[in-house]
Amino acid sequence: MLVENGKVGGKTIMISRDLRSMPHGIEIYADIAIVGGGPAGIAIARELADTRIRVLVIESGGHSYEAETQALNSVENIGQPFVSRNALSEGRGYGGRLAWLNDIPAFELRNRLLGGSSHTWIGKCAAFDEMDFRSRPWLPLSGWPIEHSQLLPALDRAGKLLNLGPNRYDESLFALLHSTPDDLGLDRRLLRPFFWQFSHMRQSRAEPTRFGRLALDITAANIDFLTHATVTRINVDSHGRRVTSLDLRSTAGRSASVHANTIILCGGGIENARLLLASNSVLPAGIGNGYDVVGRYLCDHPRTSLCSFTARAIGAVARHFNFYGLNHEGRTQFYLRGLSLSPEIQAQEGLTNCAAYPVQVYAPDDPWAALWRLTKGTTKTFKADLLAVARSADMVTTGLYDRLVRKRGLPHRSTELRFDVMAEQQLDAESRITLAEQRDRFGQPLPRINWKIGPREIDSVRRLALVISDEFARVGLPKPRLPDWIAADEAAASVFMDMAHPSCTTRMGADPRTSVVDGNAMVHGIEGLFIAGSSVFSTPGHANPTLMLLALAIRLADHLKQRHTAAQSHKPPVSEPDLSLQQG
After folding, report:
1. What CA–CA distance (Å, rounded) separates 445 from 579?
2. pLDDT digits (tens, 9 = 90+) for 368-406
3. What's the rounded Cα separation, in Å, for the pair 546 and 549?
4. How far, in Å, CA of 192 to CA of 135, rounded?
5. CATH number for position 143
6. Which residues form the Glucose-methanol-choline oxidoreductase C-terminal domain (predicted)?
């Protein structure tokens, strides 16, 4: 495949080349090489478009799913998640068309194709809390080298990229909502409201933002994409102080070298660490690993079901914990209401940040689910779905009023409403990624994953469940059913799953003894090597990572523009080549 920047049917298209069809051993030159065509890499490329910086985005996969390439995501898992003997795993909590995601092995739910993880996400977004950036004495190594306020401008730009509403996720959102949620009387010293919103394509609100499609819109002459090109090694100079080039391989047996003054790793929380560790020809411990930090502090978001409601209790709870809308730039944006542990109780009891979000399991005769299937042409029981809608005229009418007038979520007929939880993890140096003996088809060692879920996060999850249960009963809401392990306080029987949110493995910090990149996301001691994505999170928070990692990626792009401008000002003028890809 060879796609050039030009006109196809009158439309300008992106520049994309396929390593499988290029000459073996080709040498490629760029100012900046971006390793990974997922959300972080594409966001940076968009920010650098139409500048004088020659950018090459390198993607291991192609434009669509290929089993051969996906096999490169294999890991050796020697740690958690764990499931006790008497408990069944609920996976990652997906239902309906996405239920298959529950069965993907831990830390293998990754996507090697242009667009990366955005191919299998549901668009759920939230920003980190201000407290996530602060040093918390009860959580070792907590705190970021940058202030929360420094990230706000980039956070707003990331929100625009995801077609989100205002970045408000706490009770300050109340004042912006079309109809304010009821004051339930919950004790704010224990619980706080927390909201999530959902990214979507601008043309289709029913589909999350797909970064593969955003990549197709990049038509700038200074941006190249190279697909089916797996980076197998980062090369540094003989002193191990400056990045020089990348080695690439394709499944068709082709190889290439990419020479760039600046390289940005955007491969995700697993691959960024793996690639640094495997690039050990000059630095035996791996690049950036002089203090044995690369791959350590592996975090995810331990997920489990916190509590549940059935029968009549569902409606009484769902009317408060559902979607709430506001008008933003001519469109209605909806936010999902949940609950989080207050900062006060976290500090008093030494807990981590965690939040619970409502999940409804729709009944087979739910009219709104039936109507959705009918309108989308996906129904397998046309008559039954038609009857479900016809027999629930009142619910449909009420739902239309709630949605269009009150800007609220739809009322559903459900068999269960539960609160699921995602918890922040305390940093643990022994929760880590190392290299396995087993190797992939390119001879690269697989990542060995030893994810550890500590007692502090388990205690935090249990405490949140108990507080919700007690507070609901106190204010007159139905009391939920708690999982057996929470009710009996048996942590050993708890059931958790990863959420495919690996983070902190190349964490940001000022001290190279406990971090891999500095406040500008450059690897300590390695000039020109930068990292983007959730692997640079200093702490993982409880929020889904995409909005946050995009904000950091946009901030990095701004830094690289300034860095490139400063570098060019000290060089004599040279003529620019016509192409970013050149054969040596």
Report:
1. 34
2. 999 988 988 888 889 898 999 999 999 999 999 999 999
3. 5
4. 21
5. 3.50.50.60
6. 429-553
Instruction: Tell me whether strands 191-198 and 124-125 are parallel, antiparallel or unpaired.
Output: antiparallel
Note if the bond before 81 is cis, omega within 30 degrees. yes
Q: Cβ distance 80 to 573 under 8 Å?
A: no
Question: What is the Cβ-side half-sphere exposure of residue 569, based on CA atoms within 13 angstroms?
Answer: 6
- Based on DSSP, count helices (H) and strands (E) in the chain, helices before strands: 13, 21
Domain count along the chain: 1
Residues across the chain: 584
Residue 468 neighbours by CB under 8 Å, 6+ apart: 191, 306, 307, 339, 356, 419, 480
Cα-only R_g, the chain: 24
- In this predicted structure, the answer to whether residue 4 has a pLDDT above a threshold of 60 is no
Which residue, 146, 180, 152, is CA-closest to 167? 152
- pLDDT tens digit sequence for 238-249: 999 999 999 999
Q: Classify residue 230: in a domain, yes or no.
A: yes
User: Is 196 a member of any domain?
Assistant: no
User: pTM value?
Assistant: 0.93
Is residue 559 a part of any domain in this protein? yes
Which residue in the block uniquely carries the two structure tokens 């690897």? 523
Q: Which residue has the tokens 């690269």?
A: 444
In b/e form, how buried is each residue of 239-272, taking b as 16+ CB within 10 angstroms? ebeebbbbbbbbbeebbbbbbbbbbbbbbbbbbb
C-alpha span between 499 and 537 (Å, rounded) = 16
554 assigned to some structural domain: yes
**Secondary element (H or E) of residue 349:** helix 343-349
Q: For residue 307, what are the CA distances in angstroms to 144, 225, 259, 304, 467?
A: 33, 46, 53, 9, 11
Q: What's the domain range around 126?
A: 1-84+107-164+211-299+434-453+500-584
Averaged confidence pLDDT in the chain: 92
